Every structure is written in C-alpha cells, then in structure tokens.
Amino acid sequence: MSSSPTSGGVPALVLVSGPERVLADRAVDSTLTALRSVEPGVEVIRLDADAYEPGSLVQHASPSLFGGVKALVVRGIDAGTDELLADTLAVVAEVAAAPPGDLTLVVEHRGGARGKKVLDTLKKAGARVLEAPAIKTDREKSEFVTNEFRRRGRRIDPAAVRALVEAVGRDVSELAAACGQLADDSTGVVDADLVETYHGGRVEATGFKVAETALAGDTPAALRLLRHALAGGLDPVPIVAVIASQLRQLVKVSGAGRGPSGSLAKSLGMAPWQIDKARRLANGWTDDALGAAVQAVAAADFDVKGGGRDPVYALERAILTIGRARTGR
Amino acid sequence: MSVWADLVGQSRTVDTLTRAVADPGSMTHAWLFTGPPGSGRSNAARAFAAALLCERGGCGQCHECRTALDGTHADVDVVATQGLSIQVARARELADAAAHRPSVGAWRVIIVEDADRLTERAADALLKAIEEPVARTVWVLCAPALEDVIITLRSRSRHVRLRTPPVRDVADLLVRRDGVDPSMAMYAARAAQSHIGLARRLARDEGARIRRRDVVRMSTRIRTTVDALAAAADLASIAGEETTASSTERDAAERTKLLETLGADPAARTQPPAVRARLAALEKEQKTRATRFARDVVDRSLVDLMSAYRDALLLHLGSPVDLVNEDLRPDVEKVAHAMDPTQLLAAMDAITTARERIEANVPPLLALEAMAVSLRLPRR
What we know:
- The complex is a heterodimer.
- Chain A folds into 3 domains: 7-131, 3-Layer(aba) Sandwich (Rossmann fold); 138-199, Orthogonal Bundle (Helicase, Ruva Protein, domain 3); 203-327, Zinc Finger, Delta Prime, domain 3 (Up-down Bundle), CATH 1.20.272.
- Chain A has 15 helices and 5 strands.
- In chain A, strand 2 (43-48), helix 2 and strand 3 (70-75) form a beta-alpha-beta unit.
- Chain A has a 5-stranded parallel sheet, with helices on both faces.
- By secondary structure, chain A is α/β, with parallel strands linked by helices.
- Chain B folds into 3 domains: 11-161, P-loop containing nucleotide triphosphate hydrolases (Rossmann fold, 3-Layer(aba) Sandwich); 167-204; 225-374, no CATH class.
- In chain B, 61% of the residues lie in helices and 7% in strands.
- In chain B, strands 2-3-4-1-5 form a 5-stranded parallel sheet, with helices on one face.
- In chain B, helix 4 (88-98) links the parallel strand 2 and strand 3 (108-112).
C-alpha cells in the first residue's frame, strides 16, 4: 500500500515527527509551498489538537461540493483527544485505501507514546516522514546554525557559530531568527565580529555555568553570569540547587583518591565525564574550604526560600563566600 | 481501669481534667493541650473525651469510653493529618460539624491532633466556631508548644501543659502495658528521651535500635568535609529507606482499594481517563505523606544525634543527671574528650539550624550536609 503523489510531488499523507518547533513548522511550510507551486489555489485548513471538535476532521476530509485541492494540517496529535485520534485513523485509512487526489493530510507528532497507533498507521500507509529532531546540546545548536547558513548558500566561521550559540542559543526559534537576520544583513562569510555587533554583551547563562565558574574560583565572572542568568528569567532557587549538587560532586571526587574515572564512576554514582570535570574543579580546594562552601550554599538555600529578604543578595553572598573560601581568605 | 491509666507522669493535668469533668463550673469549651512530642497529648485529649462522654466519669470499660479512646465514637471527631498541613477546606468542615448537637452523648468533642499544622487560613476559619461555641461542643487542640498555634486561637482556649514524663514512669508503662522486659524498657525510655511512642518502638524493634546507635555514633566519626558529606548522605538514605519501607505496602493497598471502589480492572494496562485522574490524585496525596514522613524521620534522627552532644556536655559539667546514651558511654566520652563545651554547644546549634532549615523546605540532604560540616571533630 502506498499513497500516490497528488501534486507537486507531495504524497497524500505527510507525517512531521519530532519535538523541535522550528523544524516542524519549516517542514509543514515546505510541504505547503510545494503544493502551492502546482496548485496555487490550495485551501489550507489547520486543526489544533487542543481545540478539536469531534468529527470536524472527517468533515473537512470529505470532497467539497465545489471541488478544489485541500491541505489538512493537524497539529499536536500527541496531545490529542481520543476522538481526534479515532478521526485521524479513519481519514488515514480512507486516504490510504483510495487516494482522493485532491487532499493532502499533514500530521504533526511531537513525540511520546500517545498517538503511536496513528504514527504507525501513517508509516505503514507510506506517508512521507519529515523529521524534526530536538536541538538541545550546544553541539546540535552549532550544527543547526551551520546548516542555516548553508541552506542560504552562505558561510559562517566556527568562532562566529560559537558566539551566536552563546548569545541566543537558549531558544531555537530565536537562534533561527538571528541566523536569518545575519544572513540577510550581510554579505560574504559571517564572522565573530559581525555577531558581536548584533548580539554583543549578551550571554546565555545557565545555573550550571554559574556554578562551574563560581567553583572554579572566578568570582567576578560568576557574579556577572549570575546577573545574566537572573535577567534571562532564571529563578534563584534552581541555581542554588545546581551549585549544591556540583559542590557535592566536587567533595565526593576529592575524597575518592586517584584511580581512573571509569572505575570510580559506579562507587561515586557519577558519570565518568562528571568525575573528570569535578576533578578539574577540585584543584585548588582544601577540605576546610569545601566545608565553608557547603555551609554557604545551605544558608543561601534557606534564604532564597523565604529565610532571607533578598534572594539575589543571598546568592551573591554565597558566591562571594565560595570564592573567598577557595582562596583561603 | 480508668481512662487516665496510660497517661503517665501527668498527675496535675489529670487532676485538672477530672475536675472539669466532675464540676460544670470548671469546664471550658475550648482547650489547648501542649507538651513535648511523645508526652501523650493526643492520648490525653482522647481520654478527656472519653471521661466527658462516660456516665461514670471515665471508667475505661464502658462502650462510650472504649469508642472515644479509639476515636470512633459518634460524637468525637478526631482530626489528624498525614500530610504537611491541615487545609482550609477541612477546617470549614469542622466549623460546620461544631454547630451540631451531640447525637448520643452529653458532649460533642472535636479533637485537632495537629493544631500546629493548621495553615493560617485554616486556623482563621475556626476562630468563629471556637469563640462562640454551641452549648455542648468542646474543642480540644493539641500542639507541641504554645508558640506553634496562632495567637488568636491561643487566646480563645484554655491552656493545659503536659510535661515530659519521667523516664521511670515511661519504663513502667512499657512493662505494664506492652509486657517489655524491665531493663529493656529502661533503656528504651531513656534513649527515646521519654517519648512514649518512640520508646515502645525502640523496645520492640531491633532495626530501630541499630539505626539509632548508628546515628549517635556519627558524632565520633566526622573528621573531614568528605566524611561530613558521606555522613549526611547516610542519614538521608536511612530516612529514605525507612520511608519506602513503611509506605510501599500501604500505598499499593490504597491503590487496589481505590480501583475496587471505582470498579476498575486492576490488571488493565491503561485505565480510563476518569480512573486515571483519581489515581493521580491519590498518588499526589501519597507523595505529600511520604515527604512529611521522611522529614519526620530525619528530625527524629537529629534529636538522637543531638543527645550525643548533650551527654558529652553533661560529662564536661560533671552533672549528676543520667545520660541519654548510657549504653554508648564510650562513644559519648570520645566526643566529650574531643570537643570543649563551647564547641559542643556550637554543634547543638548546628543541629537546631538544620532542623529549622528542613522545616523551611531546604532539601534535607543539603541541610544535613551543612550541619555535618559543623560537626567535624576539631583536629588535635
């Protein structure tokens, strides 16, 4: 069973699968563009799983009195009601059995177990599958940025990629928009200076970065990152939690002796790379200093949870104390 | 045997309460029982309810007495929470119940066992009902200390203070009521610092005794920050184990029962949405209960740990008072040798701070770590 192409080489069934909003939107857009290239008058009907009314999918899928080509886009089927899932299955079965030629069904599935049956049925019916994989790690983001420029026939040098990911990497759609802007506004190879001009001074800081910098003893940088993190909407409570857990790993590693990280991993309950990282940080810490740091973090945790008046000050004080403890002053 | 028999070492309280039962002139409509944990606050409240409802002033034998002591009497409402707090909705129900006349007995008695866990709004919802009571309704609020109850409730009720019962009396109770061996009863009463429920557990449960010993010995073990964090992790994991041990079975039983009530198939791989919603609500409730239980276990361990430093301080001062940890005297001596009185007091302060922090939602592990760091033995 395979659905025959309707127009513009687009099959009657299209599945967009994956959690990444930007990529999923893009996949839907490209499908619609391909359709329009052949059939400019295509009627696009978008259905949201949240606001789905039972039966409306079947109704839209049935041939119109006036003819014309239709594209049905169903979004977020992974959070859909049972009725939506049942309706989708019915329409897919119908289209697969006898491709109508004037209908394209695009189903978006963000992931998870719900709606799995629809997914499998679509794949079995020979639907075109467009992936929208998650972009989470810095490496994935860098690849994404490089691809963005390649798509536009442009080049960007690695330092510029790094700077861009650091500046606006927290939100992928923001990253995509920034890439578009840079590509439109410039010519030639995009370099770090250009990124600096557009996004200079802005740093995406996470709790982990704050913790790492503070524990590495770079107090001024840690305070700066903290301010960026808070300005970026991070709450003090998880930041303290991250510092506490990093510090815990540091103490564990400093008490574990030498030995290769792979063999220590199990007994410490940490991944080997965490051990290596904690080891690098543990340089320059004495046992007493670690003790003082633990106490500072616990006090800060109490303060950010209502024990003190100003959560931000509590955090800053903890970072200052950590820095002083490390240098032994 | 009278209803007051199990209320050991509280003769003054018993006098006050029996007088109130016998003489309408000494009776009040709202009472506030305070006393350290394990001193028998809720038992006193139930005994008082029984005495009020019994025709012979608390014989301990009749139907009224027995059901009141059980908390199953139609005119006795016992409110206790296994969660972290008593919410305003529950308080409003109580205020409604308080307006009803007693159905079979002479009084309607409402016992709030954890008045300290009333949220502020919940306590406010009770004010009116407690201030202007219906003629035959009696409120009995229980809390560890006066300060744990908001001032507006305090001022509307009569205060009865239970004292920490003497070790000897608690041991006698264990021997008499639970048939514990006298020397074991003495050890348990002392180690539990007169907390009756805990003493009973220690006397009967070998595991509890071992856990307690491990906790007290922690005071001799911590030398470096690395030790301190390991000790804190041990403490937290002991609490975790005890929580899972006590809750897994009960949680599963509750789930089965709920499914039965809803007529759902327990073997089904996925439940219908309506059942799922109820299950989720149950799981949420079980989770709060587990949080509270884990905190309570940690808190109890901290009290045990504190006793080691208290004993060490007594040794320094040469006080004739009995040691709580008489059975672990060598360990206590080690601590006394290593730390001077100032350091011992600082250690006890650190433990108190940790208890306060856990109360304020600091993750128990982090609070324990900071505490353990302060408990490091000074280098010689």
